[in-house]
Every structure is written in structure tokens, then in C-alpha cells.
Write a structure and sequence with these properties.
This protein is α+β, with helices and mostly antiparallel strands and 807 residues long. It contains 19 helices and 38 strands. Strands 1, 2, 9, 10, 11, 12, 18 and 19 form an eight-stranded mixed beta sheet that branches.
């Protein structure tokens, strides 16, 4: 065994081997994979091997499409035989909302470029003559997906990696991992130790145990999953075509042909449970199955028989019952772990066979080039914090398994695992009818329901619409109050705090106390990594804010960019401060009744901040900035004291018609103002010029991280450009990832959207070719398979000169 490598991957399942192969393809050959048993001997070998295209995420769809394109070619690429079955698939819809989902995913298919169509019940028989169509409204037919033998693709990618110079050590158990003083990692094994620049946790069912060695929280649960294969059937043996894989919400199962029999894999919706009582598997657990529990899954097998009667017409040949990993949101973990650099996660996949190739490709790009060609945020392990405890992970992962074939509507979330992080106003706002969303463990109000009915989730405008309209208009016409305590909040202090922030940020850092700027951290390639707001509280004291979901991501971005010789301290103070957003033309009148601080323009300009006493609470950070485009302040209040400030503001605001508002209204307001969002408009896929954010880019600065490649990108010219669209208004709005057309050609993609209640317009952002950015340029946007006329409008449609912000 060698003593040093550039990369050590721990785990020889499809995820680890897929990454090894693609790192080698990217040109890194001093790489090693270590597996305690044989390749695939964990959960990979017994997987059913489905490879679907259908997915509600554009980035995940790209992962899936890459796999289905790679696997049929692997034998040619590596010389290793692969049994690919390109039989296609049928995803069934049995409700109107499921049909809406099919239509939304059809738009994603146009962007991802795979062949599909939505067909009616009467057309299903020509593709699957044995399927019963009762209760079906439509089916999403994909042409080129199918299934594959998991061991085949894993061994083929392993062969390809070896041919390119990678090494694989089998029968070698890793026993520990430690971070070394020189920044490298030491991987301890039964057969010797290896030091490496990068270590990857691809340990499958053991990944939480492996993560614990280095203090990393890995939120995965091992779920017990069955599939049943029947004896061969003459009908299938005589059939000239292979039946497509069916995914059926009625039986909550996948149904397919397998060696002339029928294979059914149910995701039982009431009785699913963890393997091994939630404990990790034994270290000697290898290529084993669990005792089947047919009684537990029988109700779903009976429904599968109703959908596909062939399933009940012969005996059972085999029952596969084994562990699959699940994360609380059903999305695998792939990217840097929080903490010291170059510890990577690549695990937690519940559809790992399909995803192994694409997941490996895009993580390899991230490791080698500093970014992938797709937005990796939804895979980033740092989307979970330490609030994702073992109990939370188990409870929510079971719920996610239960809902594998449930159609989650936009904004709908799991009902379990809630209330982990709450502001000090949670109970008060709940009593006011707040409808909460969970974001990075926090409970954050979306809107306020006075009826007591709760939200009727839908792909179309629903019962929240009238209430949100009133909330948005209150902010535009009077004054509104919002709890936005979910901001990520950091203190950057020390003698070098200013020069540090100036070096890492693309905008100029304030030189006067109280100054506020919107800044961006770019990666080494000049693309957008983070968006932050920086307030200068003192010469050596800066207050940095960013998105709720970016708490660990941005803490790493700040920490990783600090030089060892810089006298800077970075402290996460997210839980220390609550945040109230007071906004609207009457906000000054309201706030002035609660503080003696001079709020006049002469004393308190837009984009400045002061520390003040509000409602008798000292140490409140008043920031004259907001995300809704109105006169207003953010009040950053010591968390325990926030109820006192809230009560005072509500009392002072009552004569002025103050109204609570949530994130639905905030989205409407920010869309009218034309404000971009991190993670939607602003991602590592694009640069500041492409995002039309030049005004926050100070290329006259001496230097900052990403400046040189930004200048190079500017000279090259934008590959695409962000535009602001008005879309013909119907009963729904763009949410992002809708295709943008000129004629029959897809020319762009929306990133987000919403309805502007004050302007009465449906609005969206989209990336289009740079030659198509003139105001008035016309497009069609596909929303639920319908073409809606759209046109570029100047930014922003509301208060373009910022007069209201400066009022």
C-alpha cells in the first residue's frame, strides 16, 4: 500500500467508484479507493438498478441523464461488460396535482434534453399492454431510461479508473481518519496508513460512523427496502419488446419486467422502518440481506397486483430485503464537509445506481476545478447543520421513504422533524396564524392565515393568494413587520478585519463606521460563491449577513479565505440575534415612537447602520436596508429581547395599519424591485457580469479573490445574461427552471418568479443569450406545458430610482 496519495476515497460502492473513475477522467491519477470488502458488497450489489430521467430538480435531472447516457457506453469505454436495459419508463399520475407535476417536469425535460411525452390513459396500452389504467389521468413516458445491473456498472467504472492510473485496495478496512497539522488527512487502515490532500467519505451505510471519527455530522439513515421477483411468465417470454419500468403512486411501487418475470418494489407508506434498529451495520457485514417481512409490505403488493395482474399469476422466485441509505430530504450528500478543507462527502444516495455516474462526474469537477458545471447547492452536505440530530434524521428519513411516490407540491414539506430552531417570537406568530416553513432547521413564517384552515398546497395559486396580496400591499402602502431571524450572522473582528474583507469581497468594504454594502465572494474562477451584506460597526468590527441556508457554507467561505498571518476572528452569532424587518412608507413614523435615535434622512441615510436602544432594549443594530424595496429598517435584536421590541412596534404601528408579512409576500415585493436571489439567480454557474451585477463589482480595487478571472471573463464576453421578464398572467407564476423559447427553440431558463401584487404583473428572472437582452424582446415561457408570452422589461418595475428606499 502506498503511503501518500492526492485523494483517498473510503468506500467501494457505486458512488465511491463513480467518483474515482471521473476524477481519473479529469486528470487526477494519484488517487486511491479503499474498500473493506469487495466492490459493491454493501448496498450497491442488491439494488434494483433503476435509472429514471423523471425528476423535479433540473440539476438532479442532469445527474440522472448523464448516468443513462454513460452506462450503455461503459463497455465500449472500459472493456467491461454492462447489461443495460433501455426499456423506457412510465410515471403515472392519478390526481390533478400529480398531472401538474408531470407538466412541470416536462418543462425540465426540455432543458435537460431527454426524450419524453405526456400520454393519456388510452395510449398506455401500446407501451405496456398488461397495465391496468384505472384511476390514471396521464403518464409521463420517457424513452431512454431503464435499468442496469449495479455490479456491472460499478466494476466497469472501476476498470476504467484502473486503466487511467487509479488504485483500488480491496479487503482493507479503514479504522480512523485524522486531520494533520500540515492540512492533509491521514487515513488509518488495517494494512497501513495513507496521507492525502483530499479524503472522501463514500462509506455508504457506514458513512455516519466514518464521519464521526473527524467530528462530522452525517445525516443518513439505513432504511429496509424490499423488492420481489416472480417466476418467469409465458406472456413476457413471448413478448417481443421489454416492458417499460412503471412508477405507480397507487401501489407506491416500481413495477418492471425482470428475466421474463415481474419485479415489484414497494415503498410502504405506513410501516417502513430502519435497519438494525437504527444502529450501524456490523463491520463484517458484507453482501448480506435481511430476513424478508412480507406481511408488512403485503398491502402494497396487493395494490401492485391490481395495477399489474401478471404479478399475481405466478409464484415468487426471490425476495430482496436489504439496506438503502436515506437522507432527510431524499437527496444525496456530495461536496465539502463543514470544517477543515478537503474533507468531502459523497454518500447518502437512495437512488445511487442511477446517480452514481453523474454524481461522480460533478463532484470530480468541483474537486479538480473548484466548481462543477451545474449548481451543486442542493447536494452540498452543509445544507444540514448540527440540528440534524440522529433522532431527527431517523424520523424524517422514514417519512421521506414513506413519501417516495407522493407528489409534494411547491412549498410543501415533511410534517415531522419540525420546531428545531425557533425565534423567540415563534409562539406569538403562531397564534397570529403564521404558516411556517422549515429552512436550515428554522421555522420561518411564509404567510398569515386568519381562517385557521392552513395552506392548501398546489402547483397553482391557492388559498394563500388573497392573504399574501394584503400583506404585500400593506408593505407598499402602509407598513409591515416580518420576523427574519433566520439570517446567517457573523462577526468579523480584529486589526485586519477590514483588509481581510476587502481582499475577499468583490465590492468595496465601507471605510466609515455605519456603512453597509452588498458584497459577493467569488471563487478562484471568478464565479459567484456567496452573497453577503457587510455593516461596519467599528474600525475592527464588521457584521456580516447571508442567507439562512448558507450558514455553514458561508462560515467556511470566510474561514477558508483567511490567511494564517491575518489577525481576524470570525464568529457565528446567528442564534444570538433575532431580526425584525420593518418596512413601508410609514415605517419611520412607527419606529420613531420606539426609539430616541434620530431617524431622519440627514442623520440616518439609506445603507447605513447604527446601534440603538429600541423599546428599552439596548444593543439593537438598526440597519437601513431591506429586501422589499421600501423605506425601512432591519432591527437586529438580542434574541431573548425580541418579544419586547415586537410588541412595541406592533402597538406603535396599529394606528398606521401595520400588518405582519411572510416570505411569500417578500418574494412578491423583491420580484417587483428586481432583487436577485442567492442560489437562484446567483450561483457558481455564472459570473457577476452574466448576472447583471456589475454595479457591485469594483474592478478598480487593487485586488480581490476572483478579480483576474473576472477580467478575463469580461474580455471573453458573457455566455448568457440575466433578464427581467413580464409574463402573461393566468392562475400560476414561474417558480424557476421553466424553459424560455423563441419559436420552437429553447434559448434560456427561468431562475425564479412571482406575482407583483402592487404592479399587477407576473414576473420572472431568466438567463438568455446576450444578444437577446434588449428591452421589449419577446419570448415564450413554458409553464405546465403551456406557452405564455413574455417580454423583457427594464429593471425594476417598482421604484427604479430608489426614491422610496431613500425617502
Amino acid at each position: 500500500m502506498k503511503s501518500h496519495a492526492r485523494v483517498v476515497i473510503v468506500g467501494g460502492g457505486v458512488m465511491g467508484v463513480g467518483l474515482l473513475y471521473h476524477l481519473a477522467l479529469e486528470g487526477w491519477t494519484d488517487i486511491v479507493l479503499i474498500e473493506k470488502g469487495e466492490l459493491t458488497s454493501g448496498s450497491t450489489w442488491h439494488a434494483a438498478g433503476q435509472c429514471p430521467h423523471f425528476n423535479g430538480s433540473l440539476n438532479m435531472t442532469k445527474v440522472h441523464v448523464y448516468g443513462t447516457e454513460l452506462y450503455p457506453q461503459l463497455e465500449k469505454l472500459t472493456g467491461q461488460a454492462v447489461s443495460w436495459h433501455g426499456c423506457g419508463g412510465l410515471r403515472l399520475a392519478t390526481t390533478d396535482e400529480e398531472l401538474n407535476w408531470l407538466k412541470y417536469v416536462y418543462g425540465i425535460s426540455r432543458l435537460a434534453g431527454y426524450e419524453c411525452e405526456i400520454i393519456g390513459p388510452s395510449e398506455i396500452k401500446q407501451y405496456h399492454p398488461y397495465l391496468e389504467t384505472f384511476g390514471i389521468k396521464a403518464a409521463f413516458r420517457t424513452v431512454n431510461d431503464g435499468h442496469v445491473a449495479p455490479a456491472d456498472i460499478t466494476n466497469a467504472m472501476a476498470a476504467g479508473a484502473r486503466q487511467l492510473g487509479a488504485e483500488i485496495y480491496r479487503r482493507t478496512r479503514v479504522t480512523d481518519i485524522k486531520h494533520l497539522p500540515n492540512g492533509e488527512w491521514r487515513v488509518f487502515t488495517e494494512n497501513g496508513n495513507i496521507d492525502c490532500e483530499h479524503v472522501v467519505n463514500a462509506a455508504g451505510s457506514y458513512c455516519d460512523v466514518v464521519g464521526s471519527w473527524t467530528g462530522h455530522n452525517v445525516p443518513i439513515a439505513n432504511m429496509l427496502h424490499h423488492y420481489v421477483i416472480t417466476e418467469p411468465l409465458k406472456e413476457l417470454a413471448d413478448l417481443k419488446m421489454e416492458l417499460p419500468v412503471v412508477r405507480d403512486p397507487y401501489s407506491h411501487a416500481y413495477l418492471r419486467e425482470e428475466t421474463n418475470g415481474v419485479l415489484v418494489g414497494p415503498y410502504e407508506t405506513a410501516t417502513a422502518h430502519l435497519c438494525w434498529d437504527g444502529q450501524p451495520p456490523r463491520w463484517d457485514y458484507e453482501s448480506e440481506l435481511e430476513a424478508p417481512e412480507l406481511d408488512r409490505i403485503m398491502p402494497w403488493l396487493e395494490k401492485a397486483t391490481e395495477r399489474l395482474p401478471l404479478f399475481g399469476q405466478t409464484g415468487v422466485k426471490s425476495i430482496i430485503s436489504g439496506a438503502i441509505t436515506h437522507t432527510p430530504d431524499g437527496v444525496y450528500l456530495s461536496g465539502p464537509a463543514h470544517g477543515p478543507k478537503n474533507y468531502w462527502m459523497h454518500c447518502g444516495a437512495s437512488i445511487g445506481i442511477c446517480q452514481g455516474g453523474g454524481a461522480g462526474k460533478y463532484l470530480a469537477q468541483w474537486m479538480v476545478h473548484g466548481q462543477a458545471e451545474i449548481n451543486m447547492r442542493e447536494f452540498d452536505p452543509r445544507r444540514f447543520g448540527n440540528w440534524a440530530t440522529k433522532d431527527y434524521t431517523a424520523e424524517v428519513s422514514v417519512a421521506d421513504y414513506h413519501h417516495m411516490y407522493y407528489c409534494y407540491k411547491p412549498a410543501e414539506q415533511h410534517e415531522v422533524g419540525r420546531g428545531l430552531r425557533k425565534s423567540s417570537l415563534y409562539d406569538t406568530l403562531k397564534a397570529e396564524g403564521a404558516q411556517f416553513a422549515q429552512i436550515f432547521g428554522w421555522e420561518r413564517p411564509r404567510w398569515y392565515d386568519k381562517t385557521g384552515q392552513g395552506e392548501a398546497y398546489s402547483f397553482r395559486r391557492s388559498n394563500w393568494w388573497p392573504a399574501v396580496r394584503e400583506e404585500a400591499l400593506a408593505v407598499r402602502e402602509r407598513v409591515g413587520l416580518m420576523d427574519l431571524s433566520t439570517f446567517s450572522k457573523f462577526e468579523v473582528t480584529g486589526p485586519d478585519a477590514y483588509s481581510f474583507l476587502e481582499r475577499i469581497c468583490a465590492n468595496k468594504i465601507p471605510t466609515k463606521d455605519g456603512g453597509i454594502i452588498l458584497g459577493h465572494l467569488l471563487n478562484a474562477n471568478g464565479f459567484i460563491e456567496s452573497e453577503i451584506t457587510v455593516t461596519r460597526l467599528a474600525t475592527d468590527h464588521f457584521y456580516v449577513l447571508s442567507a439562512a441556508v448558507a450558514e455553514l457554507h458561508d462560515l467556511d467561505q470566510l474561514s477558508w479565505r483567511k490567511h494564517d498571518d491575518e489577525k481576524v476572528t470570525i464568529t457565528d452569532v446567528t442564534d444570538d440575534f433575532g431580526v425584525l424587518v420593518l418596512a413601508g412608507p410609514l415605517s419611520r413614523e412607527v419606529l420613531s415612537q420606539c426609539t430616541s435615535t434620530d431617524l431622519s434622512n440627514a442623520s440616518f441615510r439609506w445603507l447605513t447602520g447604527k446601534t440603538a436602544t429600541v423599546a428599552g432594549v439596548e444593543g439593537v443594530r438598526l440597519l437601513r436596508v431591506n429586501y422589499v424595496g421600501e423605506l425601512g429598517w432591519e432591527l437586529h435584536v438580542p434574541m431573548a429581547e425580541m418579544p419586547k421590541v415586537y410588541a412595541a412596534l406592533m402597538a406603535a404601528g396599529q394606528p398606521h395599519g401595520i400588518r405582519l408579512f411572510g416570505t411569500y409576500a417578500m418574494n412578491s415585493l423583491r420580484m417587483e424591485k428586481g432583487y436577485r436571489g442567492w442560489g437562484s439567480e446567483l450561483t457558481t454557474e455564472i459570473d457577476m457580469i452574466e448576472a447583471s451585477m456589475e454595479r457591485f463589482l469594483r474592478l478598480d480595487k487593487e485586488d480581490f479573490i476572483g478579480k483576474a478571472p473576472t477580467l478575463s471573463n469580461k474580455q471573453r464576453g458573457p455566455r448568457m445574461k440575466l433578464v427581467y421578464l413580464e409574463v402573461d398572467n393566468t392562475d400560476s407564476d414561474c417558480v424557476g427552471n421553466e424553459p424560455v423559447y423563441v419559436g420552437d427553440k429553447v434559448v434560456g431558463v427561468t431562475t425564479s418568479g412571482g406575482f407583483g401584487h402592487k404592479t399587477g404583473k407576473s414576473l420572472a428572472f431568466a438567463y438568455v443569450p446576450p444578444e437577446m437582452t434588449a428591452p421589449g424582446t419577446a419570448f415564450d415561457v413554458m409553464v405546465f406545458t403551456e406557452r405564455r408570452a413574455a417580454r423583457i422589461i427594464p429593471e425594476s418595475i417598482w421604484d427604479p430610482s430608489n426614491e422610496r428606499l431613500k425617502a
